[in-house]
Structures are given as C-alpha cells and as structure tokens.
C-alpha cells in the first residue's frame, strides 16, 4: 500500500516538488519498481499463477502430470481420435485397477457378513459375563456398558485379524478410485486448456454433438447422461438393501443430490472432462452388473451370490419400486 501511495503521489506533485523528492527517493525507486513487477502477476487471476493455492498446486502436481503423460501416450500409441482414446483409456484403467479392487471388496464384505453370527453369539456371552462381574464388583449400569463395549471391540478386532477382513479394507476401492478420478480429470483439464501444442488436436478430436473437446458441451447431452447414469447406479445400490437405516437413507439422498449437481458442473467444464466422467460412470455401472453374475463369481473364485438370478431379481425389484 505504501509503494502504491508513493507512486500515485509522484504523478500529482508539482514539478519542483517532484525534483526535490527525486533527490532523496531516487535510490529506492528501482527497488519499488522491482517489487511492483513481482507482485502484480501473483494477484492476477489470468496469469500463470492465477490458479494459485491448493488448486494450482494440485493441478501442477506430479501425479497429475503422470496422468497427462499416460493420456498422451495412449493417444499416440493407439492412433485413435481423442474422444475414443479417452474412452479406451478409461475402460483400461477401470478394468485393470478398480475392477480387481471391487472384487476384493466383495471378498472382504462376505467375510465380515459371515462373522456377524459369531459376533452376535459372542456378544450374548460377553453381556452375561459382564453382568455377573458387575454384580460382584458393584458396577453401575454405565460402568457395565463401558466394560461391555470395550471388551466387545477388542474381541471383534481379534476376529477381524483372525479372518483378515478388517472393514477398512472394504473402503480401499474408494481410496484408490477417488484420487485416480481427480488426477485424470485435472489432467484432461490441463491438456484441454493449458497445453497449446495439443489444443488444436483436442479441438478437432471430438465426435457427434461434441466435436470440440476443449469447450463445454453446449447441448448438455453428456452432462445429462452423466447425471442419469450416476442416479441409476445409486438406485441399483439402494435396491440391494431391503431395510435401510435412517442414516443410510440420508447418505443416499445426499449422493442423489450430488449426482444432480454434477449435471451443471459437467456442463461448465471442457467436453473432454465430461466425456471421461460419463465413461467412468458407465464402466463402473457395467462392472457392478458384471460382478453380480454367478458365472463370473464362480470363475473368479468370489463369494457365491445370494441368488442365481440376480438380474431378474434386480429388474423385479426395480419394477415393483417404481411402477407399482
């Protein structure tokens, strides 16, 4: 603020006073000019550092650049147009990385569910032992509950270690898929907007109603397809739970709202990002259906499904919920 004030005052001073000021201020003027030239680009939104802060650091991080190199290499090796190259890269990544993790998640969930009967029986015996010990030592009801919960957590943890099925392992898919999704999204954003050498290729690399991958989809077809696919995934997931708790219903409604919110977001980003999001959701939905197949589960050595006709049961549940 002081530097700007001095510069403004120098312009409005009378010539004589300006000469007097220059006799003693001239040694610091070069420093003032240098400081102004260094600070100005950082405050400009459109400059190289315009996307400063955490977003700029994230979009310029090594994992994002690695995703950029992967996409460019996939396009160069395949020789496909950019829209098809993005789709094939999405299918490859989801199939090679997230599909095995989804299968592993099914194994962990099956083991945890198989332990529920043992945990229930263990809880009954533990409650009886705590009540007997509480009467001997004069514990209050609160102290008995604390002792029961403490010992039950310890015993359940031992069961998880015994069967190597800690529930946290079931969330491994999310911890891998989310950073991967963010990295590829930012990589496509950088390729579409910040790489002049590839701008022309991406501008002509679209198809059908989105010929330019560097601009948003003005028809909103990709964003709407993305939103509908995400909603379909959520509805299929909700049909798996016969009686959902209040918290689960709140979480499900929150994801429904987020799926709707993704439609205007996808309509405001380059079409390359919207295409990737739609392909990723579509592949995820197809993998979800694939892992329901009894034949696929037996071939991959996964836990047997609850029904031998999962697709027919899913269709019946969907019809009974929305058409009756």
TrEMBL record:
The UniProt entry, under InterPro entries, shows: YidC/ALB3/OXA1/COX18, YidC/Oxa/ALB_C
Domain of life, per UniProt, equals: Eukaryota
Q: Which Pfam families match?
A: 60KD_IMP
Where does the signal peptide begin and end?
none
One GO term describing the cellular component: mitochondrial inner membrane
Q: Name one GO biological process term.
A: mitochondrial respiratory chain complex IV assembly
Its chief place of residence is membrane
Instruction: Kindly indicate whether the keyword Transmembrane helix belongs to this entry.
Output: yes
Query: What positions does the domain Membrane insertase YidC/Oxa/ALB C-terminal occupy?
Result: 82-290
Record's keyword annotation contains Membrane? yes
Q: Write the record's keywords in alphabetical order, separated by commas.
A: Membrane, Transmembrane, Transmembrane helix
Q: How does it sit in the membrane?
A: Multi-pass membrane protein
Q: Where in the cell is it found?
A: Membrane
PANTHER family the record matches: CYTOCHROME C OXIDASE ASSEMBLY PROTEIN COX18, MITOCHONDRIAL (PTHR12428:SF65), OXA1 (PTHR12428)
- Family of the protein in this entry: Belongs to the OXA1/ALB3/YidC family.
Kindly provide the name given to this protein in its UniProt entry: Membrane insertase YidC/Oxa/ALB C-terminal domain-containing protein
What is the scientific name of the source organism? Answer: Xiphophorus couchianus (Monterrey platyfish)
């Amino acid at each position: 603020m002081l530097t700007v004030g001095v510069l403004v005052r120098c312009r409005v001073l009378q010539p004589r006073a300006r000469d007097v000021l220059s006799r003693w201020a001239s040694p610091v003027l070069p420093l003032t000019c240098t400081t102004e030239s260094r600070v100005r680009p950082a405050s400009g939104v459109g400059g190289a550092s315009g996307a400063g802060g955490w977003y700029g650091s994230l979009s310029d991080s090594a994992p994002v650049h690695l995703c950029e190199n992967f996409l460019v290499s996939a396009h160069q090796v395949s020789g496909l147009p950019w829209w098809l190259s993005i789709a094939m890269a999405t299918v490859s990544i989801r199939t090679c990385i997230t599909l095995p993790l989804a299968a592993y998640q099914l194994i962990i969930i099956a083991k945890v569910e198989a332990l529920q009967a043992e945990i229930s029986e263990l809880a009954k015996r533990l409650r009886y032992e705590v009540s007997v010990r509480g009467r001997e030592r004069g514990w209050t009801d609160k102290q008995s509950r604390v002792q029961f919960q403490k010992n039950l957590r310890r015993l359940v943890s031992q069961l998880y270690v015994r069967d190597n099925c800690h529930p946290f392992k079931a969330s491994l898919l999310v911890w891998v898929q989310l950073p991967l999704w963010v990295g590829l999204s930012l990589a496509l954003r950088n390729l579409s907007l910040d790489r002049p050498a590839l701008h022309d290729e991406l501008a002509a690399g679209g198809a059908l109603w989105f010929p330019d991958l560097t601009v948003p989809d003005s028809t909103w077809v990709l964003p709407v397809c993305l939103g509908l696919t995400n909603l379909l995934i959520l509805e299929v997931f909700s049909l798996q739970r016969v009686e959902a708790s209040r918290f689960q219903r709140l979480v499900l409604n929150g994801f429904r709202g987020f799926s709707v919110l993704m439609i205007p977001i996808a309509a405001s980003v380059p079409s390359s990002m919207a295409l990737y999001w739609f392909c990723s959701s579509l592949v995820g939905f197809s993998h979800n259906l694939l892992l329901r197949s009894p034949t696929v589960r037996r071939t991959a050595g996964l836990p047997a499904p609850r029904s031998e006709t999962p697709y027919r049961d899913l269709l019946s549940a969907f019809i009974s919920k929305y058409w009756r």
